[in-house]
Amino acid sequence: PICGDTPPSTTFPVARPRRLRYNPLVRELVRETELSAHDLILPLFVRPGAGVRQEIGSMPGNFQLSPDTLVDEVGAARDLGIKAFILFGIPEFKDATGSSALKDEGIVQQSLRALRKAHGSNVLLITDECFCEYTDHGHCGILCDRGGILDVDNDATLPILAQQCVSHAKAGADVIAPSGMMDGMVRAIRTGLDDAGFQNVPILSYAAKYASGFYGPFREAAESPPSFGDRNTYQMDPANGDEALKEVAIDLAEGADMIMVKPALSYLDIIRRVKERFQVPVAAYNVSGEFAMVKAAAQKGWIDERRVTLEILTSIRRAGSDMILTYHARDVAKWLRAG
Ligand code: PBG
Ligand code: ZN
Fold first, then answer.
1. Which of 27, 58, 67, 315 is 20–30 Å from 9 (CA)?
2. Phi/psi at 323 (5° precision)
3. Which of these is catalytic: 94, 103, 209, 300?
4. Catalytic residue among 103, 170, 246, 262
5. Closest residue (by CA) to atom 10 of ligand 1?
6. Do the interacting molecules here have an ipTM over 0.90?
7. Is 209 annotated in the active site?
């Protein structure tokens, strides 16, 4: 049959939402959510050395870089329209307290200076603030004995966390993003930054960060898996939603400027609730495992990578996030460019 041949009933359907779907130009006009390279933050991994460009097995297209190759990588991404980056460091040495995180010559500090020198204010440099990459035990802070069990000592970790942040700010970080889920971390960092003269450096707090299986590939990339136990005493239980709102409320009260929900895809409800409740800038972290699943299925030819990636990122924005940290950033910027 030819479209329109069936004689219309005058009474049914009452509503015809398809009217706004026939013409692609109308679809564009009424589209509610737009993806843009402006809203993407690209995570990057840096380690000591020169000329390093080691692909991360479970994260195709993502590399461990040295400061020199990092400068080139950021330049190339900037040319694609990506302006914001978050840095993760893999240090020269690890010890019980993660002391390499605090050094002026630390890997992230060096990288910040190199990037600033090469790219000036054309790039926004965000630093992940945590100790799991720097401690020999792989936990996110200093350990203490809690009734025979080793656990992260919350209050002993706060001052060194503040020191790490100040050190990164001194080296040129534009935004400080603490990810360790320590109680009181935002207040400790805000005070540390203010006392050091960085009262205008914003904090993007990983406020609602879940103890997630989706971090697997990242822990390989950052060489940061816990050597024993898990992160369940500091990261959140995936079963909880109200608790995320409490975490966000606390971090905002302590001075967070922007907050993050992580991971993204299994937590779209959390993104939506946080946005509706607080109306502050919300970042969502489309984490390594979410990325790896798409890449693996696409490599097998089981899904259309471009279509699925754009659908996922659009859904993360539609849920209420303003910005997305994603390993797909380069691909997406290219696709958006090609139109
Ligand atoms: C460090 C940190 C992690 C991620 C970001 N910062 C790992 C973890 O908490 O174990 C995960 C990012 C990703 O999976 O892409 N605390
Ligand atoms: Zn950590």
1. 27
2. -145, 155
3. 209
4. 262
5. 215
6. yes
7. yes
SS3 61: coil
> What does residue 152 show for φ and ψ, rounded to 5 degrees?
-75, 130
Along the 339 residues of the chain, how does pLDDT read in single tens digits?
899 888 878 888 999 999 999 999 999 999 999 999 999 999 999 999 999 999 999 999 999 999 999 999 999 999 999 999 999 999 999 999 999 999 999 999 999 999 999 999 999 999 999 999 999 999 999 999 999 999 999 999 999 999 999 999 999 999 999 999 999 999 999 999 999 999 999 999 999 999 999 999 999 999 999 999 999 999 999 999 999 999 999 999 999 999 999 999 999 999 999 999 999 999 999 999 999 999 999 999 999 999 999 999 999 999 999 999 999 999 999 999 987
Tally the residues of the chain. 339
- Choice from 134, 161, 185, 224 to test ligand 1 binding pocket (greatest atom count within 8 A of CB): 224
Half-sphere exposure of 109 (CA within 13 A, CB side): 18
CA-closest residue to ligand 1 atom 7: 215
Which protein residues are within 6 Å of ligand 1, measured from CB? 128, 130, 132, 140, 179-180, 215, 218-219, 287-288
Amino acid at 23: N
Please give the distance, rounded to the nearest whole angstrom, from the Cα atom of residue 218 to the centre of ligand 1: 6
Please confirm, yes or no, whether 275 is among the known catalytic residues: no
Q: Which of 130, 204, 227 to mutate to test the pocket of ligand 1 (most atoms within 8 A of CB)?
A: 130
CA–centroid distance, 1 to ligand 1, in Å, is 55
Query: The tokens of 94 are what?
Result: 């690890």
Return the closest-CA partner of residue 213 out of 287, 113, 160, 299: 287
Domains of the chain by range and CATH? 33-338 (3.20.20.70)
d(CA 210, CA 206): 10
Contact 236, 243 (CB under 8 A): yes
| Residue 287 Cα: closest atom of ligand 1 | 15
